[in-house]
Design a protein that fits this description.
Chain lengths: 445, 368
């Protein structure tokens, strides 16, 4: 532990420095492996863009969950439901009006994308309110069951034929049902640049990029730029939640987490505080859902299964509940090692062994091992089913973490409640503070 | 009792428990709506009868699987999210046995053991059923129970025992990890295909005024197995020393330990009883439903939680009654709302009941 603290203390720039250096290490590792296997420049850029995307979305979701669980102690396992509400409401608001004969079976309200994003966020927060009103009065494990039930109710509702299409203000709108919803609005990235009158400048950038990736550079540039934008969103989430956590409001939240009865007896209306914190977190989850899926072309309800909730929880627990820096780090480490890592590994192995064809099922895979001790088919099958096995692995990681490090990477740090440094004299002795300088002398056990 | 007294009491009830009154009103309105549609002929009595029967069967499965969850919830103090995957594990182990016995010599052993992964063998062509292959089914039930007990004990030993003294949330999160590891390991081995497992069972029709309610052999098997196991658990808890020890532990673990109850041994016994019931429930669920997929237990789990919470955590009668209530809600809700919302309706009933009566229907009667 002391080694890690020393390391953290030596990194310049405090928490931001820590996050940046971890990100740097991750990217360097990905690029190095790519170079080692002779990836094209385009492939490298794509890998980085995809990696950035997942780091950003998981960091955002972990930050929002940290507000619930790390700060307030609300055990929310319905994250994916709020994400689904965010993107579906956003699509509902922003999709163009229904045109007969188009590819999209249903239309939307045709409002600008930014309006849709706000609507999605607000809708998720409002659903959070609806869930919070009954559930926050209950025990933590009941809240867990209510929230996961809610996320499944949301999924069933979007799956149902009743909401597939209906008439509103005389146009055909809807959520598309089980066959999915085509997101046929202008590409949000293009729309974003056009708002600032930068559409032409952006296309210029794409052309300039053509020098690096000669043929069809636009998708590559798009995803790289989108990844960068998402990182800006992460920074905004981080700033907002850090401010929230350090504000008087955040102090009450931490008091509720530690002992709700005490907070209550000090005259704080804990239910109100919990409801507000829950709504804020749900809104942020909704926005994260929008940002995750709005460029995916189409969404189907069955994407929003509880496994995404599980991913976010692992990310938060890796990073350490209660620490915003930890949430971002957890998101990054989870995305790089557990989420994208195995898939990247599979791509690498596929590239290394282009002729190997994996057996179609466990039976044909295990039969050669039993009959003539040939483990190759089983190995190939294992690699082929890495998307399932990575979930097994994540489950084992979660168990291991709960056994050995339930506080995660940074969860052992305590944030002082006061807004001003309490240990100014000590801080002078210990020049490098790990917690951004506002807390003193608590960076160890 | 005078009218004024009744009125006062009614007003008191309305003031102190507005939720219950509202719930009662909603119930009356729904019942009235059902009566109207029965009279006008939009619903047939036999149709409603079929839904009730279907709901009862579903409720028995949920209740039987809920007993194990309720026991571990009250004695080990955590909501075990891996319970759904214990159900699936029991189902796969039991059905592998059934396939093996029913299909030995008629199909490849590997395909039989993998319960016909990706369409290599079909349960229908093997003629599996209570009447067609009774030996295979009984063997399957026994193996399902035993292997789930072993699995539960193994996981308890390796995963839950080292963190026995942590709080409920830590254990809950750990159990989520167990759930995902188990589920996708099963998908890895048994593939993600949903297979039909049984041949069409013989059925009889009960005539009910304007039509027939069909009851098949697997419904009967479910009633017999679930009923006898529930009775068995009741006797175990009420008549044996082990049952008394379990009830004592659910009430107060420290006190139980001081009194000389070997708590670790009781915990093991809880996993044995709970795991066995869960495995059998998984098997019989698949027998009744006729299809098997790696997600079945997980999908059932939320309904089981709803049932256990509805009935009051720790009460096995609560789990049974709650299971029947959830099963009936899910089945009967199609009378009033579109069928795609039947599951949502069951969750909704749970949430509403949590508000009105958070301690559950059979509250305060721990494991009794």
């Amino acid at each position: 532990m002391s080694v890690r603290d020393d390391l953290a203390a030596r990194i310049p720039g405090g928490d931001t420095g820590l996050i940046l250096s971890i990100l740097l290490i991750v990217y360097a590792a990905y690029v190095l492996v790519g170079v080692g296997l002779g990836y094209s420049l385009r492939g490298q850029f794509n890998t980085i863009a995809v990696l950035t995307f997942y780091i950003a979305v998981f960091a955002m979701l972990a930050l929002a969950l940290n507000l619930h669980w790390g700060y307030t102690g609300l055990f929310n396992i319905g994250i994916v439901g709020f994400m689904a509400i965010g993107i579906y409401v956003m699509a509902f608001v922003s999709k163009p009006l229904y045109q007969p004969g188009g590819a999209a079976q249903v239309g939307g309200l045709g409002l600008p994308i930014i309006v849709g994003m706000i609507a999605g966020t607000v809708a998720a927060a409002l659903v959070g309110l609806v869930v919070a009103l009954p559930a926050l009065r209950l025990r933590a494990d009941y809240l867990a069951i209510v929230t996961i039930a809610m996320s499944e109710i949301v999924r069933f509702s979007f799956l149902s034929g009743e909401f597939e299409q209906f008439e509103l203000f005389g146009t055909r709108v809807g959520f598309g049902g089980g066959s999915g919803l085509i997101l046929n609005y202008t590409d949000p990235l293009t729309a974003f640049f056009e708002v600032f009158g930068l559409g032409g400048a952006y296309l210029g950038l794409v052309d300039a990029f053509g020098a690096l990736v000669p043929n069809n550079p636009k998708p590559v540039v798009d995803s790289l730029v989108y990844g960068l934008l998402l990182l800006l969103f992460v920074a905004a989430y981080y700033w907002l939640l850090k401010r929230t956590g350090e504000s008087p409001f955040g102090r009450v939240l931490k008091a509720i987490r530690e002992d709700e009865d005490v907070a209550n007896s000090l005259g704080k209306d804990t239910n109100r505080f919990k409801t507000k914190a829950f709504m804020l977190g749900c809104g942020l989850m909704g926005l994260a859902g929008v940002l995750w899926f709005m460029r995916s072309g189409a969404v189907t309800p069955n994407t929003f299964r509880p496994r995404i909730t599980f991913f976010v929880w692992i990310a938060l627990i890796i990073g350490g509940a209660g620490s915003n820096t930890g949430s971002v780090l957890g998101g990054a480490v989870f995305a790089a090692l557990l989420y994208q890592g195995p898939r990247y590994l599979k791509n690498l192995i596929d590239a290394a062994l282009p002729n190997a064809s994996a057996p179609s099922g466990f039976g044909p895979a295990i039969a050669p091992l039993v009959s003539n001790v040939d483990p190759t088919p089983l190995l190939l099958y294992t690699i082929d089913s890495i998307r399932q096995l990575q979930l097994v692995f994540m489950g084992l990681v979660l168990i291991w973490l709960m056994h050995n490090r339930p506080e995660g990477m940074l969860g052992h740090r305590k944030e002082t409640a006061a807004g001003i440094p309490l240990t100014a004299s000590q801080a002078r002795d210990k020049t490098a503070e790990t917690d951004g300088g506002t807390t003193g002398g608590e960076a160890d056990e | 009792m005078g009218i004024s007294e009744t009125y006062t009491r009614g007003r008191e009830l309305a003031v102190t428990r507005p939720g219950s009154v509202l719930l009662g009103l909603v119930g009356v309105v729904l019942l009235f709506d059902l009566l109207v549609s029965l009279v006008t002929g939009t619903q047939s009595l036999s149709g409603v009868g079929s839904l009730v029967w279907d709901g009862l069967m579903r409720g028995l499965v949920i209740g039987l699987a809920g007993i194990g969850l309720s026991m571990t919830y009250s004695i080990l103090n955590f909501a075990n999210f891996a319970h759904g995957d214990y159900i699936t594990a029991g189902a796969f182990s039991g059905w592998a046995t059934t396939y093996l016995i029913a299909g030995l010599g008629r199909a490849d052993v590997g395909a039989l053991l993998l319960v016909g992964a990706s369409g290599s063998v079909f349960g229908g062509t093997l003629g599996i059923g209570v009447t067609g292959t009774p030996v295979a089914v009984v063997a399957g039930i026994v193996v399902a129970g035993i292997s789930t007990v072993l699995l539960a004990l193994l996981i308890d030993r390796t995963v839950f025992k080292p963190i026995r003294d942590e709080d409920g949330i830590t254990l809950l999160i750990t159990s989520v990890g167990v759930a995902f590891a188990l589920r996708y390991l099963m998908q890895f081995v048994f593939s993600s295909s949903v297979r039909g497992t049984t041949a069409q069972p013989p059925s009889l029709s009960l005539y009910l005024v304007d039509g027939a309610v069909r009851i098949n052999a697997h419904d009967i098997a479910l009633v017999v197995v679930a009923g006898s196991l529930m009775l068995g658990v009741h006797l175990l808890l009420q008549l044996t020393k082990l049952g008394k020890a379990m009830r004592a532990m659910a009430d107060n673990e420290d006190l139980a330990q001081i009194t000389g109850i070997p708590t670790e041994r009781v915990v093991r016994a809880v996993w044995v009883v709970g795991g066995g019931l869960t495995g059998v429930a998984g098997y019989i669920f698949i027998l009744w439903k006729g299809t098997l997929g790696f997600n079945d237990g997980w999908l059932l789990l939320l309904l089981i939680f709803a049932a256990v919470i509805l009935g009051g955590i720790g009460s096995i009668y609560g789990a049974i009654v709650g299971g029947l209530a959830i099963g009936l809600t899910a089945s009967l809700s199609v009378i009033w709302i579109p069928s795609s919302f039947s599951r949502a309706a069951a969750f909704f009933v749970m949430i509403v009941l949590l508000l009105v009566k958070p301690e559950g229907l059979f509250s305060g009667r721990s494991t009794a």
